[in-house]
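Structure representation:
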Amino acid sequence: MNAYTLAKERYAALGIDTEAAIKTLDTIPVSMHCWQGDDVRGFEQRGGALSGGIQSTGSHPGAAANADELRAMIDRALTLIPGTTRINLHAMYGDVKGVERNEIEPGHFAAWVDWAKARKLALDFNPTLFSHPKSADGLTLSHPDKAVRDFWVEHCKRSRKIAAAFTKELGSPSVCNLWIADGFKDVPADTLTPRKRLVESLDEIFAGELNVIDAVESKLFGIGVESYTVGSHEFYMGYAIKNNLALCLDAGHFHPTEVVSAKISAASLFVRRLLLHVSRPVRWDSDHVILLDDELIAIAKEIIRHNLLDRVHIGLDYFDGSIDRVTAWTVGMRNMRKALLIALLEPYNQMKDAEYAFDFTACLTLTEESKTLPWAAVWDEYCARKNVPAQCMS
């Protein structure tokens, strides 16, 4: 009797169907971020360091120098990653050398669409509002100069149209997520006016319905904007609720003692869709490769326990230039799926029933005993069926 058969029987005794868990796991889309492959440089070839609160550290060889190299790297990673995968692009990753950001069009991403079609992948998208001369002041959509705001508004409007083209060409709604680094290093005298300007910019960007899933992403602080960000959590949660947009919760965009897992169920009551950017902050928004740690598992459990798979979009968001970049993708994507599998195999119904009966002793016991159930044997079986290695050793 092999390990999976024994595990299947063990779970069945708890009323858990491992076959159903495997089937569900395989269909959950996880969006893999392209920017791990080149340290968030993009292909505009402007030169210079990253700016706008973005910093990738390390000098491991092998960063992609162009889109073809990046796609080849993603292809290698996909051979090691089971399940339904999407690819998440930033606007600076198209054929955009010499093209200003307020002039980008779907045609600049035709090569990505052709590549995705050949692999039956879907694409998500993000406007790029950092590392640009017009973001040098630390403000973009909230800038006091209307000409600067107009430039970025046009960029975001065009980004939405590119995402809509992805939806049409690939047959799957593209998530278009908007994040800006706008803020101040020290405490500003006027915290309100920049937010009023941001509302005006956003209203213009999101005017007109397109076949995309629009999301807005908050941040607490960043490099150079330690004291104040215009697009705070409260700002974007209010804006998302008011305008029926998806709210993006990035695991690294909150106070170091806050966790995204604690926000999911509350936010789900008021916003129709959630987008998760799953990363691993180390004392700040450092975007380390995600580990199979308590918080990652807690995030997965919140999604599965509350039947939010049809309303939560999972994307990864980290970049580490100190290690092999394909390995970084592979480890993170597989860890996300492992966490989802652990959540799918949890005896949640029994735990919930015990809690409803005020039998907190039984609930605690089930919670703790479930941590040592043989989920790894189910993972190995899943990988075998998907023809990927159960263990990836670099």
About this structure: The longest strand covers residues 85-90. Residues 138 and 182 are 5 Å apart (CA to CA).
